[in-house]
Specification:
CATH superfamily: Aldolase class I
CATH topology: TIM Barrel
Radius of gyration: 17 Å
Strand order of the largest sheet: 5-4-3-2-1-9-8-7-6
Number of domains: 1
Strand content: 5-15%
Oligomer: single chain
Structural class: alpha/beta
Distance between the termini: 34 Å
Number of helices: 12
CATH class: Alpha Beta
Shape: globular
Helix content: 40-55%
């Protein structure tokens, strides 16, 4: 059983919703990332989503775009990100790690080499934002050969037919984008999200995670009532931006925000 499958099985048995924080690797500087990952786990993360910095992150809003710019100023590349995961694994062998990024760095490394290197580093799942299922077949084969899950996004505008296609190709979990737009954008309609999540559950046995636009403990708790996983990104990256000159303070801020979300989610929607 993969780390992702084992973690979601454990959470399901305990009737708990997964909390999945996102940070951009190398932001604000490379030496901070592994420490941030451990801080997030201590604060209640069930899975860590680690962004691979890219020059043109078209699915991300300004907060994560700027995080990519900070990371790229230090020359953080895909191989550096894999080294960070490897360092994280030296102390944490159980928390699943999903890489989120764009196809160009993977294309440059090569599908076979990337899949082998990611598996060796301890990655569990891959989400390539700009590679739809129709174009993912070759990469997915290599990932599957190494036991890595292919995670896909589903948007509010995705048709029923395409939702089924994505569910058929997905592994690990299905990631439902709760708003129309980029990360950090839009207003959430929890009831509408819940209906779409229910439709997806009718198409797959995989857990359904919800992300984009979840910024505080109260919203995380509300979303936990309808989803199998709550994904939080821009709200955490803002904390790194606010404390970019003090990594220790950034880690404390990340822990405080994620801890509030974890407690609110575990208290049946009542923020701590």
């Amino acid at each position: 059983m993969s780390r992702l499958a084992a973690r979601f099985s454990e959470l399901r048995a305990g009737d708990r919703t997964a909390l999945i924080p996102y940070i951009t690797a190398g932001d604000p500087e490379p030496d901070s990332t592994v420490g941030f990952m451990h801080a997030l786990v201590r604060a209640g993360a069930d899975v860590v989503e680690l962004g691979v910095p890219f020059t043109d992150p078209i699915g991300d809003g300004p907060v994560i775009q700027q995080a990519c710019e900070r990371a790229l100023r230090h020359g953080t590349g895909l191989r550096d990100v894999l080294a960070m995961v490897r360092a994280f694994r030296a102390e944490d062998a159980t928390t699943p790690v999903v890489l989120m990024g764009y196809m160009n760095p993977v294309e440059v490394m090569g599908y076979a080499a990337f899949a082998a290197a990611a598996a060796e580093a301890g990655v569990d799942g891959i989400l390539v934002v700009d590679m739809p299922p129709e174009e993912m077949a070759d990469l997915a084969d290599h990932l599957g050969d190494h036991g890595l899950d292919s995670v896909f996004l589903v948007a509010p505008t995705t048709t029923e037919e395409r939702m089924q296609l994505i569910c058929d190709k997905a592994g690990g979990f299905v990631y439902y984008v709760s708003v129309k737009g980029v990360t950090g954008a839009g207003q959430l309609d929890v009831d509408a999200v819940g209906k779409r999540v229910d439709r997806l559950r009718g198409m797959t046995g995989l857990p359904v995670g919800v992300g984009f636009g979840i910024s505080d403990a109260a919203m995380a708790a509300r979303m936990a009532e309808v989803a199998d996983a709550v994904v939080v990104g821009s709200a955490l990256v803002r904390q790194i931006e606010a404390h970019q000159d003090d990594p220790a303070a950034a880690a404390e801020a990340l822990s405080a925000l994620l801890g509030d979300m974890r407690r609110a989610m575990d208290a049946d929607g009542v923020p701590a």
